[in-house]
Every structure is written in structure tokens, then in C-alpha cells.
Amino acid sequence: MLASFTVVPFGVGNELKEHIAAVVEVIDASGLDYKFGAMQTTIEGEQGKVMEVIMQCHNLMLQRAPRVLTSITLDDRKGAQGRLVGKVADVEGVLGREVGKE
Description:
Strand content: 25-35%
Strand order of the largest sheet: 2-3-1-4
CATH architecture: 2-Layer Sandwich
Structural class: alpha+beta
CATH class: Alpha Beta
Oligomer: single chain
Number of domains: 1
């Protein structure tokens, strides 16, 4: 399963980098493959573990902020593995070039 998610704290001011860094530490410690981005993070793994990690991130942020909004997009394809990199590679193969690289 792939899951792209965002965890948005409310009521903690405009600087979010310390809060987001704490969430990234949770994801990193999970051992799941992930790709951190400017607006979301995508993780790959078994469904139960993926959802567990997302809830750990949500709950950690809830300890740090009075209100938290977590959005999740799931891509669950039976038998698929390595899609975190594979989906991007598929499109790059069609284009014949890397995407989003300078």
C-alpha cells in the first residue's frame, strides 16, 4: 500500500518546521520506505503498519497542537511492491527523462 498524507497542526503559530520534523522522526523510525515532500509525505508498506504510522504521526501532532487535520490518500494494489519509486519511474520511462529534477 502507498499512502500520501499531511498532518496539519492548528494553533501553534506560523513556523511548523519543528513540528513537522518530529513527525518525520516517527516515520523514519518506522522502518517503512517513504518520500518526504514539501506538502505531503508518501509511505509504502503493509496496510496495518502504514495506518499505524499515520496515526502515530497524527497523535504526536495532537500532543503538540490543540487541533490537527490529517488528510490521507491511499493506493492499495494487490501484489504491488516497490511502487514508491516504481510509479515515478514508469512515468519517467514514458517521457524519456527524469521529472522534477534540476
